[in-house]
Amino acid sequence: MISTRNALGLVALLLIAGCGTATDSTSPVVSSSAPSSSTVLVVKPSEVFQGYELSDEALERLDAVRDEINALVNRYEEKGITAGELNDAANEIISSHAEDPFLRVAIPQVVSLPALHAFLASEDTENLDSYIARHTQMLVDNDSPHADEISQALTMLDDYWDAEKIQTVAEKAIENAEYYLGKNNAHAASKAAEDHGSTDVPVENLQESSARIHAEMGSGVQHLEQLLEK
């Protein structure tokens, strides 16, 4: 084990394309080689993490899984695998990381967001409802704050889920996004970069990416609230 961090201090992990790494015990972890669309992971402190030490090995495994799902999504977009094969592979990755408390929450977020994004961007989404529903549920159940993608998914699922289900998922998605936004991650990410002179993460890149993500989440929350008003 290279080093450890107490997971109770970990609130969010922001993956940004093309950046290096900057961490401390209280700030978000900013990791490199992220997918083209940045992914924010939220791991809420809980009794599950009492005494748990987050290792570098776990973070490296997270990076490996992220690369694996991105490769699968690329194959799907290039029509090298079917939607069903992408869905099955994503589900297998998620289920194979159920033992570790951190990865059990983080992996579904890392895997389901790009899978959901790929399904939503498909030319024909008519037969993808079950896959969209599966990964929307994964994101919401594991506290993902990506309200924008979830709001798009719920629009697609209007005829697949009943009104009560839509409302329940929308409310939880809003709660997740507002929890993240309330932590002011842009400030925390900048602090992480400032605290580590050896990092190659430009502070302005962190600020720009965080600001964009905040705007997308805020827009998603608004769309979800409008959905609830219908």
Explain this structure.
The N and C termini lie far apart (52 Å). The protein is globular and about 45 Å long. It has eight helices and five strands; from the N terminus they run E-E-E-E-E-H-H-H-H-H-H-H-H. Helix 4 crosses helix 6. With 230 residues, the protein is mainly alpha-helical. About 15% of the residues have low confidence. Helix content is 59%, strand content 7%. A three-stranded mixed β-sheet has the order 3-2-4.
Annotation, overall tally of beta strands: 5
Give Rg in angstroms: 17 Å
Tell me which oligomeric state these chains represent.
single chain
Overall pLDDT, averaged?
A: 78
Strand content: 5-15%
Measured distance between first and last alpha carbons: 52 Å
Structural class: mainly alpha
The low-confidence parts are: 7-11, 16-36, 195-203
Shape: globular
In this structure, how is the largest beta sheet organized? 3 strands, mixed
Please give a quick description of this structure.
The chain has about 230 residues and is mainly α. It has eight helices and five strands.
Helix and strand layout, with pairings?
Elements: E1 4-6, E2 12-15, E3 29-31, E4 39-42, E5 53-55, H1 56-77, H2 83-95, H3 101-120, H4 129-141, H5 147-156, H6 163-182, H7 185-195, H8 203-229
Parallel strand pairs: 2-3
Antiparallel strand pairs: 1-5, 2-4
Helix pairs in contact: 1-2, 1-3, 2-3, 3-4, 3-5, 4-5, 4-6, 5-6, 5-8, 6-8, 7-8
